[in-house]
């Protein structure tokens, strides 16, 4: 293994629904106080720019006001990189999924400030969204940048990249669609790589670690990781 070199929607924001019996979430909600500006963003902008994680199948053309290739981002964090990618890629639509209210609120503000008609937000569980609302073979790409590594052995069952989840992600990609992930945890990077290699319908686009593409901005978290001596491990796979 080498070292890494404006269309609005009528849907309103919902909190992540309770897990089903036996369901293990890949995230943990953190409760805390939120700045007043972000609270105002949620109150004022969520009805315009959010999509529910559960419900009937999505009609992206209705949500975005046009037919276009759709990208789902799992875990958009505070949204700066997501907003920058959407702004630089106006021919595709982006659906950013995030569970933490401060990140959702900040991204809503960025959508309004940037006049981004090709970006909407889901506050909820990405796997639930993909199972319930995203049609098979319908996505141009899925992005999962710096997913929680859940480093403790007893928490590995919560990791996003495990065979059953990868099977779901891959099934929602159109032929030729891209599954793109990056992590700064070497052990998890190897696990992700083995798991993706094991899926017969996915092909490694770089036969190993991929370079960071120009379209993916370097995040604040990533810069801190690099300053601490933790390189990023990037992987891009295509669906056959």
From TrEMBL:
Signal peptide: none annotated. It catalyses: guanosine(46) in tRNA + S-adenosyl-L-methionine = N(7)-methylguanosine(46) in tRNA + S-adenosyl-L-homocysteine. GO terms for molecular function: tRNA (guanine(46)-N7)-methyltransferase activity. InterPro entries: SAM-dependent_MTases_sf, tRNA_(Gua-N-7)_MeTrfase_Trmb, tRNA_methyltr_TrmB_bact. The keyword S-adenosyl-L-methionine applies. Keywords: Methyltransferase, S-adenosyl-L-methionine, Transferase, tRNA processing. One of its GO terms (cellular component) is tRNA methyltransferase complex. Substrate binds at residues 152, 184, 219-222. It is an enzyme of class 2 (transferase). S-adenosyl-L-methionine binds at residues 73, 98, 125, 148. Residues 1-23 are annotated as: Disordered. Residues 1-10 have a biased composition (Polar residues). Catalyzes the formation of N(7)-methylguanine at position 46 (m7G46) in tRNA. Belongs to the class I-like SAM-binding methyltransferase superfamily. TrmB family. This is tRNA (guanine-N(7)-)-methyltransferase. It comes from Natronosporangium hydrolyticum.
